[in-house]
Design goal:
By secondary structure, the protein is of the alpha/beta class. The chain is built from twelve helices and ten strands. Helices cover about 45% and strands about 20% of the residues. Strand 6 and strand 7 form a beta hairpin. It is globular, with a radius of gyration of 21 Å.
């Protein structure tokens, strides 16, 4: 049994595959298996995967019809035999000591390992990002509070799968899988579900382990630059997160409010996103609004609306004073 199962979902990633796979094979730490999940690629991705598997017995390749990244990751979870699971995207790159840095955090009471990463911009600029912490270990309650920090936004950094190393026994015992009907924020939903089903502590290091290659053709770049109907499904993700968090035995008022506001703010984000792309379907927006109100209640929804309007008025007054 390998210590780490690395899962890479692949769809038409032929031009990037050599870089990501080679960065895995160059790791100084080598007690791993690499699961390449070809999600019905129409380019040469599948051929490249098979060629790698013929040369290295740590690599296993699985081909399936195109069913989306969540289904590909789920297949990887079904096949993973490692003690720990690490998710990687096919168009990024691992730092040379990525796996060693991750496994250095392993311990009997550790349920999750969290690290830093680098974003590489199209201009070539590189910025490092890391969770802000003064300690090397903390609780799942603290991490959940960081995932849902305040009434205005979520910590998107903590929603990236590839900054975490997950304990496979927690995933399998609790049958944690990606929701294939959700196309945006399915990763944050998975992380939240994992945290709500684990009782250990989180090991943390700010050391960057991963290079996130930011490009306009990436999934998030596509979401930002053109309309993606999958964005609407993110309301279902935050509703499920809210439900899970409110079922926790150690729930605090602050965490409950943060999860509540995540649902309400997601409604406003989706309606704003649709308007931005001239796809403002009133019927769809009403349906999303109804989902949000049914989940959190009318009074919290109206309270959040009042807070948002108050902030908008304050910003407007502040900007007018500047002029």
């Amino acid at each position: 049994m390998p210590t780490v199962s690395i899962i890479i979902p692949i769809y038409n990633s032929g031009q990037f595959l050599h870089r990501i796979v080679d960065s895995v094979l160059r790791q100084g730490y080598n007690d791993f298996e690499l699961l390449l999940i070809d999600d019905g690629s129409s380019d040469d991705s599948g051929i490249i995967c098979d060629a790698y598997a013929e040369k290295d017995n740590r690599i296993r390749v699985f081909h399936q019809e195109n069913r989306g990244v969540s289904a590909a990751r789920n297949l990887g979870l079904d096949k993973a035999s490692g003690e720990w699971v690490y998710f990687v995207d096919s168009d990024d790159e691992l730092m040379p000591d990525c796996l060693q840095t991750l496994v250095n955090g392993i311990g009997d009471s550790i349920a999750l390992i969290l690290c830093g990463y680098e974003t590489v911009y199209p201009s070539g600029n590189v910025l490092s990002f890391s969770y802000k912490s003064d300690t090397t270990v903390f609780t799942r309650q603290e991490l959940l509070h960081s995932l849902y920090p305040d009434q205005t936004k979520q910590n998107s950094y903590l929603g990236y799968l590839w900054i975490y190393l997950f304990r496979n026994s927690i995933i399998q015992t609790n049958n944690i899988r990606f929701n294939t009907s959700i196309r945006i924020k399915e990763d944050t939903l998975f992380i939240t579900q994992y945290l709500c089903n684990s009782c250990g502590i989180i090991s943390f290091t700010p050391i960057p382990i991963y290079r996130y290659m930011l490009r306009e053709s990436s999934a998030m770049g596509t979401v930002l630059n053109e309309y993606n109907p999958g964005y609407i499904t993110s309301i279902d993700a935050v509703i499920q997160m809210h439900s899970m968090i409110n079922g926790l035995p150690y729930l605090t008022r602050d965490l409950s409010l943060a999860a509540e506001n995540a649902v309400i703010n997601r409604y406003y984000m989706i309606s704003g996103y649709m308007k931005k792309h001239s796809m403002s379907d009133k019927g769809v927006i009403r349906q999303i609004k109804k989902k949000a109100i049914n989940e959190v209640g009318l009074i919290p929804f109206l309270r959040c609306l009042w807070i948002r309007n108050k902030r908008r008025i304050i910003r407007k007054i502040h900007n007018n004073k500047k002029k």
